[in-house]
Amino acid sequence: MVTMAMAAYDVKDAGLAEKGRLRIEWAEQWMPVLRLIRARFSKERPLKGVRISACLHVTTETANLAITLKEGGADVVLCASNPLSTQDDVAASLVKDSGIPVFAIKGENNETYYNHILAALAHKPQVTMDDGADLVTTILTKRHELISDILGGTEETTTGVIRLRSMARQGVLKFPIIAVNDADTKHLFDNRYGTGQSTVDGIIRATNVLLAGTNVVVAGYGWCGRGLAMRADGLGANVIVTEVNPTRAIEAVMDGYRVMPMAEAAKIGDLFVTLTGDKNVIRAEHFQMMKSGAIVCNSGHFNVEIDIPALEAMSKNKRQTRDFVDEYTLDDGRKIYLLGEGRLINLASAEGHPAVVMDMSFANQALSVEYMVKSGNKLEQKVYAVPTEIDQEIARLKLSSMGVSIDTLTPEQVEYLASWSEGT
User: Looking at the structure, do residues 331 and 212 belong to the same domain, yes or no?
Assistant: First the structure.
């Protein structure tokens, strides 16, 4: 590994670039909205000279976003937002074929992960792009001197938005952030359909288990949990939902799933997946009740959703039985299997969300950065929603790319919806 202070980039193997380039091209053909944005950016150059530091999952889809930003004139540096989510061939191609510095290696340890974040911040960004808010957190705790140059940033995922809103409430957030995750064209599709499919993909690649007839416990019924429950149900699993939000729990019941506390689900579950954005959702008391052979994994952003230290303390032996599968033998002889070190299983053992759904998410990122560059000096130090006109334009472009037409309001309907006088 090269020294961060001297490095222009840090990837596993630059020789993987050709494979990465082909995979980036494959993803591009499934991202028509981002292609349209890239074509406009290439002509208009709205991001000319803007320094962007991005902390995202280094995947084929992210590569297409980074290339789009560069086509728009931006000076982009990329690091990983998770130690296990990097696709090393993609990182190599971005460096070699696109001239975009990348600091990311799949399987990097915690020290290297944060060194890579610091390397990306050495770029002295004017715009930050986060997936989990680690970039912003590092700025606020270790690189405070960078704040004066920052126009603002964007945030990709639920966990990051939660952290950033907490910063805003406590008055420590020092520049505006656009919550890309909260755009309808992001969370309604990326979180639900993307997470649903890619999580199942990751679990099956890691374990080759049959979901039909299996008791699958879904912890959390937000948009990610809804998506996973839908996909697991479609494959014949017996879906059990655990929740702390009573409204979401009612929704899960009316969607046809069993709802119960984790303490009850732990006794009957075969496969457990956390998607809550909180910590210690599965704890020691739950491990104590699980049947031997239970499989536990996480598809929320951080691995704290599972109390891994508690599982370690309860175990007399640990061994890796398959790639991304750790077998823990408890003191009483029961075996519990943890996937992907408790990190995002859809990216640890699979490829993450399909490009066709990330097309909308990263279109939001690209257009939100453009908006931030144009409006950053007018925005306050708080978390903003993606402007409605951007959200709607992305939906319109996506429908057009799918060959789908919809109705438009007539003048009479527009007038009626704006009026209060006409009743029964």
Answer: yes
- Which pLDDT value is given to residue 424? 77
32-44 vs 355-375: helix crossing angle, rounded to 10 = 30
In this structure, the answer to whether residues 310 and 375 fall within a common structural domain is no
List of long-range contacts for 318-327, beta carbons under 8 Å, 24+ apart: 322/206, 322/207, 323/206, 323/349, 324/206, 324/348, 324/349, 325/206, 325/207
Contact 164, 136 (CB under 8 A): yes
Strand partners of residue 238: 215
Q: Quote the CA–CA distance of 423 and 413 in Å, as a whole number.
A: 14
Determine the distance from the C-alpha atom of residue 166 to the mean position of all C-alpha atoms in its chain, rounded to a whole number. 19
What CA–CA distance (Å, rounded) separates 393 from 377? 24
Dist. CA 274–CA 208, nearest whole Å: 19
Query: Domain with 162 in it: what CATH number?
Result: 3.40.50.1480
Alpha-carbon span 317 to 314, nearest angstrom: 9
Of 70, 67, 71, the closest CA to residue 58 belongs to 67
pTM for this prediction = 0.94
Cβ atoms within 10 Å of 55's Cβ, excluding its own: 31
The whole-angstrom separation of Cα 233 and Cα 418 is: 42
Q: What is the pLDDT of residues 388-421, one digit of tens each?
A: 999 999 999 999 999 999 999 999 999 999 999 8
Nearest to 106 by CA among 128, 124, 89, 84: 84
